[in-house]
Design goal:
This protein has a 4-stranded antiparallel β-sheet with strand order 1-2-7-4, sandwiched between helices. It has a two-stranded parallel sheet with strand order 3-8. The chain has a two-stranded antiparallel sheet with strand order 5-6. It has 17 helices and 8 strands. It binds cobalamin and iron/sulfur cluster (2 copies). Cobalamin (B12) binds next to helix 2, helix 5, strand 7 and helix 7.
């Protein structure tokens, strides 16, 4: 039974039955592109994502066999999420944008649960013991490399894994097995050709020529992984993205032509999670945040990170309503990081009302970072009006 084509077919059929759109099998040999990863770390392009540069995590990325002793095969799966274009239409211009993978439930829960069901099906199918390990995203695995090797697609210039008939709106997960399975053929062709649309569309110019990113500048990093302040010079480039960014995928011809609106309903948006109302979100209480984003990937940034991002998006809008909401936030918000970004946003909105409110806030503010932001916001207003 082990190593038989029938077992491989069984795994693939079960994976599809469980809702995975893509399934491929590879072996645990070291990934060819590991030197690219090492160079990326050496250049410090990972910013503050220190979990990527831990020595044990680097060793495991270089050698997947360290993840599960005796591993013989890796089943790579892909599951589609909605297209960004499928977001519900919102009339108000005061809405933010959330990356499409994060509209519904967290894939870090969905993918492992389904892979566990796949393991259970395997255990009933074969009558000898085997070891297994399930990972998605946060594990020490070069997922895109292994997925390319399992035949799921090619790595585009935007660094995303792209399937020639599905595009790139899918997430990856993997099942390590001590079972011997025939690997699938790697996906060896590159279908980017002379296209450069993603590179040209990226607002922060963070897509590098060697198919890696300067992650420190990527909006996805700035709004999700970065726990501190958003660098002032990059705030305007965020526009109204408040969690992640889909731009380099939206412009990709392979998504424009082939991505379909088909996806698992668990990834569908609910309660304006795709296009949140900025003026309401900036006033979310800790309890409201918890209730709204229970089960959602937005939990990752916590209320502190989310409202920081909302403040920046409000600063990038020019509506009267945005200033009113920001003024309430600066006055009542207990978290200094959020107040600091609200102060910047108020300065960016500008005008006499903004100036008076900032001057008043300066009298009562005690946090040094917020004071600094208020002072530079006041400076900004003054310069702007000269
Ligand atoms: C850190 C990380 C980020 C960082 C850095 C991203 C980056 N491109 O480096 C940030 C926070 C910016 C980010 C953003 C996003 N991420 Co992310 N991220 C990761 C994570 C955890 C590690 C990626 C990594 O190691 N980066 C370092 C670089 C050097 O490695 P790499 O991107 O994998 O690139 C490899 C290839 O480019 C390869 N390479 C280059 N040329 C060639 C040529 C060939 C032939 C081969 C084989 C390889 C190759 O070398 C690299 C090393 O293997 C992975 C999960 C994982 N464990 O792999 C998810 C992952 C890559 N992210 C994912 C997603 C969905 C996103 C976002 C779309 C989310 C969003 N909407 O905001 C954006 C997309 C931004 C983008 N253009 O990449 C998915 C991608 C799915 C897909 N279809 O590709 C992953 C796989 C998570 C998952 N389990 O689904 N992410
Ligand atoms: S996700 Fe956005 S910021 Fe990041 S590389 Fe793509 S377009 Fe640029
Ligand atoms: S936009 Fe063009 S260059 Fe970028 S990933 Fe898609 S096909 Fe490749």
């Amino acid at each position: 039974m082990e190593g038989s084509p029938a077992l491989k077919e069984f795994i693939k059929a079960e994976a599809h039955r469980l809702g995975f759109d893509l399934v491929g099998i590879t072996d645990p040999s070291p990934p060819d592109s590991f030197p690219i990863y090492q160079k990326w770390l050496d250049r410090g392009l990972h910013g503050d994502m220190t979990y990527l540069s831990r020595p044990d995590a680097i060793a495991r990325r270089a050698n997947p066999s360290l993840i599960l002793p005796g591993v013989k095969s890796i089943v790579m799966v892909g599951i589609r999420y909605p297209r960004p274009e499928d977001a519900p239409v919102i009339e108000s211009e005061l809405h933010g944008k959330v990356a499409a993978y994060a509209w519904g439930e967290d894939y870090h829960n969905i993918i492992p649960a389904r892979l566990k069901t796949l393991v259970a099906a395997l255990q009933t199918r074969i009558d000898f013991p085997f070891e297994w390990k399930i990972l998605t995203d946060s594990g020490p695995v070069l997922e895109r490399d292994l997925a390319q090797r399992a035949g799921l697609g090619w790595i585009g210039k935007n660094t995303c894994l792209i399937h020639p008939r599905m595009g790139s709106y899918f997430l990856l997960g993997e099942l390590f097995l001590t079972l011997d399975l025939e690997p699938d053929s790697p996906f060896t062709t590159d279908h980017c050709g002379s296209c450069r649309r993603c590179i040209e569309a990226c607002p922060t110019h963070c897509i590098l020529p060697d198919r890696t990113l300067d992650a420190k500048r990527c909006i996805s990093y700035l709004t999700i992984e970065n726990k501190g302040g958003i660098p002032t010079d990059l705030r305007a480039t965020l526009d109204n993205w408040v969690f992640g960014c889909d731009i380099c995928q939206q412009v990709c011809p392979w998504n424009i032509r082939f991505a379909s609106s088909h996806h698992d309903p668990l990834f569908s948006p609910k309660d304006n999670t795709a296009r949140p109302h900025l003026t309401r979100e900036i006033l979310l209480s800790p309890t409201e945040f918890k209730q709204k984003f229970n089960q959602s990937p937005l939990q990752r940034v916590k209320r502190r990170g989310y409202l920081r991002n909302i403040a920046v998006a409000l600063g990038n809008s020019t509506s009267e309503q945005s200033l009113a909401a920001l003024l309430i936030c600066l006055k009542n918000e207990p978290e200094p990081l959020i107040r600091a970004h609200a102060a910047w946003a108020i300065g960016k909105n500008g005008g006499a009302r903004a100036r008076t409110a900032l001057q008043e806030a300066l009298q009562s503010e005690s946090d040094p970072d917020v004071i600094k932001e208020i002072r530079s916001a006041l400076q900004f207003i003054t310069n702007d009006q000269v």
